[in-house]
Amino acid sequence: MSSRISTYEAWHRLLDGNERFVSGDSLHPNQNASRCSELVNTQSPFAVIFGCADSRLAAEIIFDVGLGDVFVVRTAGHVIDDAVLGSLEYALSVLHVPLIVILGHDNCGAVTAAKDAVEGGELPQGHIRDLVERITPSVLRSLREGKTDVNDMVVEHVKETVRRLLDSSRVIFDAVDGYSAAVVGVGYRLEEGRAQLVSTAGVL
């Protein structure tokens, strides 16, 4: 069982790590052989990060954390499916993690593909089509609000993912509703390396 910390403490631990990363002062904590030994029979992550699978978005690096610190789930465009929901519910129910972070980023290829499909009227082939279909509602919402830039759509998709997560999982909804967990949406700026809060559900 995790040594319990508050949602506020978990969030600010990530923020502090990202600030170190941006300023070039990363500590690279918990990244040695002795840490491996400590984690053989247990893990106590303080946050779960559900992010885009983009190679430029390595959560442990940009938040300056190490082995055993965060439980990470990744799909292209942080698209939710049953395996994602099961993974996130495991983090909350079994590992007692107090914070879920939805991590999107500017110039996201999956969101760009959905934007192109909406504007061009043609869906991609194979399983990429499934990704695009799941992101399309975020693109359409942005367009209805007059926001046509892909990075505006990225922010909307992060917000939509937070909403969809709460709608799709009773376990997560109840944890947030009962103040034992919070969900935050974060937009990551590739050039700066900075993570910015764009959405919250629950109390930080």
From TrEMBL:
CDD domains reported in the protein's UniProt record: beta_CA_cladeC
Membrane-crossing segments per the record: none
Cofactor: Zn(2+)
Chain positions recorded as Zn(2+) binding sites: 52, 54, 105, 108
Assigned keywords, A-Z: Lyase, Metal-binding, Zinc
Cofactor note as given: Binds 1 zinc ion per subunit.
Annotated GO biological process: carbon utilization
Keyword Lyase: yes
Signal peptide (residue range): none
InterPro entries, alphabetized: Carbonic_anhydrase, Carbonic_anhydrase_CS, Carbonic_anhydrase_sf
Molecular functions (GO terms): carbonate dehydratase activity; zinc ion binding
Gene3D superfamilies referenced in this protein's UniProt entry, alphabetically: Carbonic anhydrase (3.40.1050.10)
The EC number(s) this enzyme carries: 4.2.1.1
Keyword field contains Chloroplast: no
Reactions it catalyzes: hydrogencarbonate + H(+) = CO2 + H2O
SMART domains hit by this protein: Pro_CA (SM00947)
Pfam families reported for this sequence: Pro_CA
Primary role: Reversible hydration of carbon dioxide.
Family of the protein in this entry: Belongs to the beta-class carbonic anhydrase family.
The protein's name in its UniProt record: Carbonic anhydrase
Species of provenance: Pseudarthrobacter psychrotolerans
